[in-house]
Amino acid sequence: MTDVPFCVGGTVLRTARLTMRAVRGEDLRALFETMSAENAGDAAGWHMAEYPADARRLLRVFLRDGHTFALLLRDSCRMIGVLDVRPAGELPYADPRVPLKEIRFALAADVWGWELMPEAIRAAALYLFTRTEVRGLIAYVPPENVRAVSVLEKVGFTSSPALPYRILTDGPSLHADPPLIL
Question: For the chain, is the Cβ count within 10 Å smaller at the N or the C terminus?
C-alpha cells in the first residue's frame, strides 16, 4: 500500500456550518464530552470514554500522530467531534500503488441527525484529493452500525460483500459545495 504523508498541522477547513482544524491540548474536555456518549466512537472503533483519563489517552494519540481534525460549529466555536485521517495499512484486494487513507470519526450525540459528519468528511476528502496525492479513503464500519453506514453512504462511500471496508474515490459529488481552505 502506498502511503502519502499527511498532517493536519495548520490546515483549517471551513464549510457552511463547520470549522475543521487540528486537535489541540485544550480540546480535552470537549473530547471527553463527545466520547462519553454511548455509541459516539463506535464508527471509529474507539470505546466510550468512561473517565477523563480515557479521553486524555486518546487526545495524546491524536496530538502525537497529527492527523486528526477537531470539528467545531462555526457559529459557536464549540467542538462537536473529530475526524481522524490515518494511514490505511495493508488492504485485501486494494491496488498497492493507489495512495489511500483510512478515516475514523466521532460526533457529539446532541448533534446527531444534523448532517454535520457527511459535511466534514466531504470537506476533508475534497481537500485530500485536490491538495495531496491521496486518491481514495476507506472506512471500516460494521454493518450493524446503521448510523455510521448512513453517514458514509451520504458522502458516496461504496461497499462490496467481498470487502471488509467501504471506499470513496474522487468524483463530482464531492465538488458540489467545496470547503474554504485557509
Answer: C
If you classify domain 13-177 with CATH, what class do you get? alpha beta
Cα 59–Cα 117–Cα 15 angle in degrees, nearest 5: 100
Q: Which residue in 30, 23, 164 sits closest to 107, CA to CA?
A: 30
Whether pLDDT at 109 is above 90: no
Helix axes 116-131, 146-155, angle to 10 degrees: 50
C-alpha of 124 from chain center: 8
Least-confidence region, from 6-10, 51-55, 90-94, 112-116: 90-94
Task: Please state, in angstroms and as integers, the Cα–Cα distance from residue 34 to each residue in 41, 55, 60, 64, following that order.
Answer: 8, 9, 16, 20
User: What residue ranges do the domains of the chain occupy?
Assistant: 13-177
Question: CA 43 to CA 13: how far, in whole Å?
Answer: 22
